[in-house]
Design a protein that fits this description.
The structure holds two protein chains of two kinds. By secondary structure, chain A is of the alpha+beta class. In chain A, about 40% of the residues lie in helices and about 10% in strands. Chain A contains seven helices and four strands, in the order H-H-H-H-E-H-H-E-E-E-H. Chain A has helices at about 20-25, 35-45, 50-60, 65-75, 95, 100-110, 155-165, and strands spanning about 85-90, 125-130, 140-145, 145-150. In chain A, strands 2-1-3-4 form a four-stranded mixed β-sheet, covered by helices on one side. In chain A, strand 3 (about 140-145) and strand 4 (about 145-150) form a beta hairpin. The longest helix of chain A is centred in the first third of the chain and has 12 residues, at about 35-45. By secondary structure, chain B is α/β, with parallel strands linked by helices. Chain B has five domains: about 10-115, Glutaredoxin (3-Layer(aba) Sandwich); about 130-340, Rossmann fold (3-Layer(aba) Sandwich); about 350-435, Roll (Ubiquitin-like (UB roll)); about 440-530, de novo design (two linked rop proteins) (Up-down Bundle); about 540-595, 2-Layer Sandwich (Alpha-Beta Plaits), CATH 3.30.70.20. Chain B is built from 22 helices and 18 strands. In chain B, helix 9 (about 205-210) packs parallel to helix 11 (about 240-260). The relative contact order of chain B is 0.08. Classes of the chains: A alpha+beta, B alpha/beta. Chains A and B meet through helix 2, helix 4, helix 5 and helix 6 of A and helix 1, helix 2, strand 10, strand 14 and helix 17 of B. Bound molecules: flavin mononucleotide (FMN), iron/sulfur cluster (3 copies) and FE2/S2 (inorganic) cluster (2 copies). One FE2/S2 (inorganic) cluster (FES) binds near residues 17, 20, 50, 204 and 208 of chain B. Flavin mononucleotide (FMN) binds near residues 169, 198 and 323 of chain B.
């Protein structure tokens, strides 16, 4: 399986407008393309910096208020940079019933950050999401591109440790279900 | 039949959907590929979507020459060498790992599938979703071809009306009628939208269909586009489903190559295009008018109806929206005939429905059953009853818009009207099973916090009303409930239901109302006795260790953040209730389940 590069500089610098220009060009004058524009910009830069949103408004011909309005309305858009690995703890119904609160608590406990925050070493950002569609393996947590199912609070330390070192995750390929 | 069409002796198929991958299917895939290369086994490897056997993923099915097959579950990379050596090498079935055998479909866990009737999931787990050839081989795109080359749009709509199918996205509106409105709506330019936003947090049937059989959905859309006269289709899919998005892209590309999408489909002068729109994480965008706003690039807020999408939809043009599961059933209906579909089900709810069994049920997974099955049949016969031998308490259906039904309602038939009368809704098909350790007040609080969070804020009853309800529920869970809280909840619920602009607000109070209807005693227990009998609400429980079963292994001691647990080695331990902060970390640690929360 091909894996996305997980090195810390996988996102473009917000001062480099090259990637943004390509994205804007790709969508051209397509109507209703604001959301995909913002999605791709976020994929390229990791988050939506104010500067990027201003550029989108200017170059793609939107009102700045519309760009800000859309970016703040949808939960997916981040206005702050994220760490190397995004941790998404599922808080959908099945995961809630299976103890998702304790999972988030333990991640907070291990990393010393609150939800929405990034560790000082820029490794991890913690978020919660509503259902990843693998409810039957609840509780679920995604770290980077890997899904970990049937978690227990006591397993969190081990899961996170695999990502803590330099380079990619070690043996972290979502095979934690027992 | 002498072989399975490929000249090889065996075909090994790995279930490769999100669920399987989360359970370790990637490692199994690597091991299979390596082992086949190295062991020079004469087999074909293939992937498929999933069979919905989530409880026993990763799953591998091995087909023999005669077309018979054995399904193995709980396969790990470590088990792969033995699996190939014994089954493929020596022709011996490893009985202990078998889920299902084709010659005895009910053996082992096979009755999970044997008790189902698969129409929508007909191909899921059977074909490689990344190969249009495999879909065509089993009759795929025949229905679309038949319709476009030999039927009129009205005949297609009639067939769908005859089937009696009702929309599977939640509201259960008759699909044929809906298509008829869109067809009759004046205008040259019309749009078709597939709702793949799957907003109910705890449901995954649409994801499984998109991952396991994307071509059925596309074929359904081609048929619908032709029927209503729309040449442009959109699939609005949640961003949380990367694999579904990827397989949709592949399937659309393949369709273009085959000429099933684009100009002059099947040699006719009809054209149809499909574009995928990735959702941006707002539950309210599952609502039709909000979804259209979002596709237009605006904030996803609902608009008052009328005007209805059938006349004034996307970009002001006539638009028809259906759910993934609805579309996936259409090719079957056109191929087999609406009458055959109408033979399945109850008087007013025809056909089959896919349910996602999750929560405390033993066999979690996808269950497609004929309408008219009882809840008991779904949860016990298909689902295998409650996990860990516990007691059934309730089943939550319909997610944040739905309700909880207690044990005395288990004989209710799954049918739109009967489930609604009982106090829940069929919804999109989520079924979360609760046992005696699930707190109903907490579950209601959970759903309210969800809807409160997802309220778009456009209208006050929903925005402020859900907040007030949530505050009350939080208070009750914290042991600070007041005697008049139950009545306050009921009054607020009524106001929100009556005055909200869209169904998000209009149905938000339902989880509270049904738990109040069937589990009022739990609310009272929280409010008056400061007790949570399920042992769930941290403020209302105490934890203790059962001295009879505690082995003194000290596993719990290591995880306790406040050093509240003490004891001699190999002697029963005790929890100091003063020091315990009820974080429940120790609960999952104890190997003998000696820690009791009550
Ligand atoms: C708040 C809200 C969320 C909804 N979410 C979904 C959803 O995730 N998927 C879906 O198919 N329908 C959803 N619906 C229902 C749709 O608005 C619409 O009725 C449905 O897609 C129509 O398709 P059908 O006729 O095939 O059921 C939602 C409705 C509301 C009010
Ligand atoms: S009911 Fe709620 S979600 Fe619907 S429009 Fe009003 S505020 Fe928005
Ligand atoms: S619930 Fe938490 S604080 Fe209480 S004994 Fe268990 S681990 Fe310790
Ligand atoms: S983990 Fe369980 S068995 Fe071990 S000491 Fe704690 S309570 Fe006793
Ligand atoms: S509820 Fe967590 S994956 Fe669905
Ligand atoms: S295995 Fe496919 S949905 Fe769970």
């Amino acid at each position: 399986m091909e894996k996305e590069c997980a090195c810390s500089n996988r996102f473009a610098d917000v001062d480099d407008l090259g990637p943004l220009e390509e994205i804007i060009e790709h969508y051209g004058s397509e109507k209703g393309a604001l959301i995909p524009l913002l999605q791709e910009a976020q994929d390229a830069y990791g988050y939506l910096d104010e500067k990027i949103m201003r550029e989108i408004a200017k170059r793609a011909g939107y009102q700045l208020s519309q760009v800000f309005g859309v970016a703040t309305f949808f939960a997916q858009f981040r206005l702050k940079p994220i760490g190397e690995y995004l941790i998404k703890v599922c808080h959908g119904t099945a995961c809630h019933v299976a103890g998702a609160t304790q999972i988030t608590d333990e991640v907070i406990n291990q990393l010393g950050i609150e939800e929405g925050e990034t560790t000082p070493d820029n490794k991890f950002t913690l978020e919660s999401v509503m259902c990843l569609g693998a409810c039957a393996l609840a509780p679920i947590m995604v770290v980077g591109d890997d899904t970990h199912g049937k978690l227990k609070p006591t397993k969190i330390k081990k899961v996170l440790k695999a990502y803590a070192g330099p380079g990619g995750p070690e043996g972290a390929e979502g095979d934690d279900a027992e | 039949m002498s072989d399975n069409g490929n000249g090889h002796r065996y075909k090994v198929v790995l279930g490769y959907g999100t669920c399987g991958i989360a359970a370790g299917a990637t490692a199994v895939k690597d091991a299979l590929e390596e082992e086949v290369k190295k062991g020079s086994y004469d087999v074909d490897l293939d992937i498929a979507g999933c069979m919905g056997l989530c409880f026993i993923e990763p799953v591998v099915e091995i087909f023999d020459r005669q077309g018979g097959s054995v399904v193995y579950g709980d396969i790990t990379a470590k088990k792969v060498p033995q699996l190939l050596e014994e089954h493929v090498g020596k022709g011996q079935v490893i009985e202990d790992w078998v889920v299902k055998k084709s010659e005895d479909p009910e053996a082992c866990e096979g009755d999970f599938l044997a008790n189902q009737l698969r129409v929508v999931l007909r191909n899921c787990g059977k074909i490689n979703p990344e190969s249009i050839e495999e879909y065509i081989q089993i009759g795929g795109y025949e229905a679309a071809k038949k319709a476009l080359t030999s039927m009129t749009p009205e005949e297609v709509i009639d067939e769908v009306s005859t089937s009696g199918i009702r929309g599977r996205g939640g509201a259960g509106f008759p699909t044929g009628t809906k298509w008829g409105f869109a067809r009759k709506s004046p205008g040259e330019e019309k749009y078709l939208i597939c709702n793949a936003d799957e907003g109910d947090p705890g449901a995954f049937m649409d994801r499984s269909v998109l991952e396991g059989d994307p071509h059925s959905v596309l074929e359904g859309m081609i048929l619908a586009g032709f029927a209503i006269g729309a040449r442009q289709g959109y699939i609005y899919c949640r961003a949380e489903y990367p694999l579904a998005l990827k397989r949709l892209d592949i399937a659309i590309e393949e369709c273009h190559q085959k000429g099933f999408l684009g100009e002059g489909i099947f040699g006719t002068d009809w054209s149809f295009e499909v574009k995928v729109k990735k959702g941006a994480g707002a539950f309210v965008c599952g609502e039709e008018t909000a979804m259209m706003a979002s596709i237009e690039g605006q904030r996803g807020m609902p608009n008052p109806r009328p005007p209805f999408p059938a006349t004034h939809g996307l970009w002001g043009k006539p638009t028809n929206i259906n759910n993934v599961e609805t579309f996936a059933a259409i090719p079957w209906i056109i191929a087999e005939g609406g009458e055959k579909y109408a033979e399945i089900g109850t008087e007013k709810s025809k056909g089959t429905k896919v349910f996602c069994l999750a929560g405390k049920v033993r066999r979690t997974g996808l269950a497609e059953v004929p309408m008219g099955y009882t809840l008991r049949q779904v949860i016990f016969d298909v689902g295998g009853g409650i996990a860990e031998g516990r007691e059934f308490k309730a089943v939550q259906m319909g997610g944040p818009s739905g309700g909880c039904l207690p044990a005395e309602k288990l004989d209710t038939q799954v049918d739109y009207d009967q489930i609604t009368a009982a106090g829940a809704i069929i919804g999109s098909g989520g079924m979360i099973v609760a046992d005696n350790r699930t707190c109903m007040v907490d579950l209601a609080r959970y759903f309210l916090s969800f809807t409160q969070d997802e309220s778009c804020g456009k209208c006050t009853p929903c925005r402020i009303g859900t907040k007030r309800m949530l505050e009350i529920l939080e208070r009750i869970c914290e042991g600070k409930g007041e005697p008049e809280d139950i009545e306050k909840l009921q009054v607020l619920a009524g106001d929100i239901k009556d005055a909200s602009l869209c169904a998000l607000g209009g149905t938000a109070p339902n989880p509270v109302l049904t738990t109040l209807r069937y589990f009022k005693d739990e609310y009272e227990d929280h409010i008056f006795n400061h007790k949570c009998a399920a042992g769930s609400c941290p403020a209302l429980i105490t934890l203790r260790i059962d001295p009879e079963t505690c082995t003194g292994c000290a596993a719990c001691v290591k995880v306790c953040p406040t050093d509240a647990i003490t004891g001699e080695k190999k002697e029963p331990h005790v929890i100091d209730a003063e020091a315990c902060i009820r974080c429940k970390m120790c609960l999952s640690r104890c190997p003998s389940e000696s820690i009791i929360a009550e």
